[in-house]
């Protein structure tokens, strides 16, 4: 059967798909205004598409990138373990213990690198919460500028370049782009080193250590 919009004849199935698509767009538009959970809204949109026949269960299953799902299933517990066992804080304290034997700028750089590594497996907020007290205490112990150390940790917590699971956008393109873990390392490692050097140099120059 055909439906008519203006002068264009369309199958009723296409009209139904278009209606569902418009409903989905409208639902997402309301998320911001009504402050609803976007995950719930997205799930409701998927259910509506299945009910309307726009998407069948087999297509839905095939559309899931299971490699990403299992990657998250393995890495998220690792991040939880790092936080829960105190390993992350222990690593920070190890750097702090070595602070008295190293130049201040090297200690600052080490805290940047360590925070950047942690933020690959735990959230940037958790990295900051874990590392700021340790970095500030280490700076105070060696007579350095604690605020500069806090700045380094804060900047480093947003530099998840070494893998697909450190930040959402990295993960979004991991499956569709056909990337491998080593691809992120190949591009991300030089970028991480460059930013760490520039950031530490900038903090040293403009804030002092």
TrEMBL record:
Principal location: membrane
Name of the protein in its database record: Arsenite transport protein
Domain Citrate transporter-like: 22-153
Source species of the chain: Halosimplex carlsbadense 2-9-1
Any single GO BP term: transmembrane transport
Compartment(s): Membrane
TM region(s), chain numbering: 12-31, 38-58, 64-82, 149-167, 187-206
Membrane topology: Multi-pass membrane protein
